[in-house]
Recover the amino acids of this structure.
């Protein structure tokens, strides 16, 4: 089960257009931890990488999920927006993020 994360709390809430989006994500993770099926379920975070959060350093992501009981991290690249216009992203920063995710998953 992959849950989407757009960055730190402020960025995540701004991108989601919901001031409670980050808190809801945390609550979902807490709820999953209490379920008997959790040991059979792989739970992770999918970092949604876009122009709107490409400047967030890896260390900030780590600070966000450091205490979360995650089985994996992944990322997807978003290069468009609901409005339909194309947004160029920094591919170097995306590849840096992917390299850090790969290191995290190997630990």
């Amino acid at each position: 089960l992959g849950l989407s994360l757009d960055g730190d709390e402020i960025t995540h809430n701004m991108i989601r257009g919901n001031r409670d989006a980050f808190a809801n994500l945390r609550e979902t993770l807490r709820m999953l931890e209490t379920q008997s099926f959790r040991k059979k379920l792989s739970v992770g975070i999918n970092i949604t990488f876009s122009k709107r959060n490409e400047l967030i350093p890896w260390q900030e992501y780590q600070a966000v999920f450091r205490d979360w009981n995650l089985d994996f991290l992944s990322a997807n690249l978003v290069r468009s927006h609901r409005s339909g216009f194309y947004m160029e992203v920094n591919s170097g920063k995306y590849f840096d993020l992917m390299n850090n995710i790969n290191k995290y998953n190997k630990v």
Notes: Residues 91-106 form the longest helix (16 residues). The longest strand covers residues 44-49. Residues 75 and 98 are 7 Å apart (CA to CA). The chain is about 40% helix and 15% strand.
